[in-house]
Amino acid sequence: MPTKAYFEPTQESGRAFFSRKISGSVVMLNLLRFREIADYSAAPDLALPSPISGEAAYRLYMEHTRPFLENSGGEVIFFGRGGEFLIGPSEERWDAVMLVRQTSVSSFLEFASNQEYLAGMGHRLAALEDSRLLPMTEE
Q1: How does strand 75-84 pair with strand 26-34?
Q2: How do the residues of the chain divide into helix, strand and coil, expressed in percent and rounded to 5?
Q3: 30 beta partners
Q4: Is the pTM higher than 0.90?
């Protein structure tokens, strides 16, 4: 039986995130699994003339996203290759791992609701087979 894929927060998870009342910066742990070939069926206007890999589509998403992220006070503090878990389910793998720091929850919301940023989200959707996003705070 196929497992459910995750691409966007639910209303419940969004409500839970904001109810944490995080003060100060937040670091987002992104786990990313790429499609072998990017699927632009949901955003045909962003598709390239020839098929590309999911990883290549994600790089296009990041090129588009980085200026909006940085203008909102955010930064990518780590981006690297993933793989299979050393401790965790053997059937689960993540192709890439990314850590993004935002100065505050409000700056994250400003970034995530920016219409110019959202115009490039089709690259992310085309790229990903599955993803996870875990907001973290420093103790």
Answers
A1: unpaired
A2: 35, 25, 35
A3: 98, 133
A4: yes
Polymer length in residues for the chain: 139
Render 69-101 in DSSP notation, one character per residue.
HHHTT-EEEEEEEEEE-SSS-TT-EEEEEEEEE
List the pLDDT tens digit at each of the 139 positions of the chain.
457 889 999 999 999 998 999 999 999 999 999 999 999 999 999 999 999 999 999 999 999 999 999 999 999 999 999 999 999 999 889 999 999 999 999 999 999 999 999 999 999 999 999 999 999 998 7
Residue tagged 């699994």 (tokens): 33
CA distance 9 to 102: 17
Q: Which CATH class is domain 25-134?
A: alpha beta
Name the phi and psi angles at 74, rounded to 5: -95, 165
